[in-house]
Amino acid sequence: MTVSAPLTFRCTPSPLHATLLAGTVPLFMGAMFSDIAYFNSFQIQWSNFAAWLIAGGLLFAGLALLFALVNLLRAQPKSGRPVIYFLLLLCTWVLGLVNAFEHAKDAMATMPYGLLLSVIVTVLACVTTWVGLTGLRSGEAK
């Protein structure tokens, strides 16, 4: 009679992947704070800051998305946590792109939708980073 130990697999990203993923949070959060500052002051430079921060967040999120796709293809179980992480990151990137298109308009035309999208993308980036950087998961051997 043999007893199987539970399988444990690592679903945390590599250091470069983690750096790219974690870098999305301050960039998207900075864009959100810039949008809040623009909403309160109507100084156009805040809108420009937000647009550049969103572009940086998209770059980091896009590269992290490539890493997540490779990790998803290499993952043992093709469902569960790796899929949820990939889909969250994809949603973050797509909504970030929509936010970038919104910020490409005239500065006055970006409000209030640009601010709303920045808040949504920031929350999504935080949730995605939380899911992506959490530790080990275990499943039963069959």
TrEMBL record:
The chain crosses the membrane at residues 20-39, 51-70, 82-101, 113-133. Keywords: Membrane, Transmembrane, Transmembrane helix. It comes from the Bacteria. The keyword Transferase does not apply. The keyword Transmembrane helix applies. This is DUF2231 domain-containing protein. Residues 14-133 form the DUF2231 domain.
